[in-house]
Amino acid sequence: MNIAHVTPVSGNIHEDRAQAIRDTLRDAIVDRRLTPGTKLSEIEVGTLFNVSRTVVRAVLQMLAFEGLVCTERNRGAFVSNPTPEEARQVFASRRLIEPGIINAVIEFMTPDAARKLRAHLSEEIRYQHERGARARRAEIKSSGDFHLILASLAGNAIIEKFMDELVARSSLVIALYGRSGISSCGHSDHAAILDALETGNAEKARELMLHHIDHIEADLDLRVKEGFALKDALAL
Ligand SMILES: [Zn+2]
């Protein structure tokens, strides 16, 4: 029986609640408070948020659809653990999409849009100078937000949704494979991209964006780690 058809109001409340919990868990995954491989127990999530398992399942399904959670039969749901190949695919996708976003943003670039990006940039830099885990998380989120604001200025809701997923997946990949473990983006790169956008130099902005994505990927250690066979690991 579809509850939503019988009691649409309560169905909507469930949907809103699921969406809010999804946002909370997504933020925790993206800013790396929940690391790859962490188990998301249905009972625990349900208790923490005071919702039924039906709502929890809907939340986990949404996160699985975005690639942030994987579910394993009989074992439950976990924060995704992307492979090196998936990590490469995330950045390959960004290299295809983000130069296109630059083209569109140049077209829609207004003084207001430039001000919005500048204000965001100064926020990124402020977090960079603050210390502590909280400031670090804020900085990581903020550097991803630069790419999301650009996507929102491109005037294409579907691209915006793609980028939302790609930035979230990037954050997961950086949590797993990042070498420096500090920021996911160089702030001087962002400033240079914005300078090129403001002067209407699409070619330079595209080039800088590609270079920037290469730069983020270059900080990852994607070598497949050779594990030992059990008997070698135990030196038997
Ligand atoms: Zn960046």
Question: How is this structure best described in words?
Answer:
By secondary structure, the chain is mostly helical. It folds into 2 domains: 3-79, Winged helix-like DNA-binding domain superfamily/Winged helix DNA-binding domain (Arc Repressor Mutant, subunit A, Orthogonal Bundle), CATH 1.10.10; 84-218, Four Helix Bundle (Hemerythrin (Met), subunit A). It has 11 helices and 3 strands, in the order H-H-E-H-H-E-E-H-H-H-H-H-H-H. It has a 3-stranded antiparallel β-sheet. It is globular, with a radius of gyration of 20 Å. The structure holds zinc ion. Zinc ion (ZN) is lined by residues 143, 146-147, 185, 190, 212.
Short overview:
With 236 residues, the protein is mainly alpha-helical. It has helices spanning 3-6, 8-30, 42-49, 53-65, 84-108, 111-129, 133-153, 157-177, 187-198, 202-218, 230-233; strands at 39-40, 69-72, 76-79. The protein folds into two domains: 3-79, Arc Repressor Mutant, subunit A (Orthogonal Bundle); 84-218, Up-down Bundle (Four Helix Bundle (Hemerythrin (Met), subunit A)), CATH 1.20.120.530.
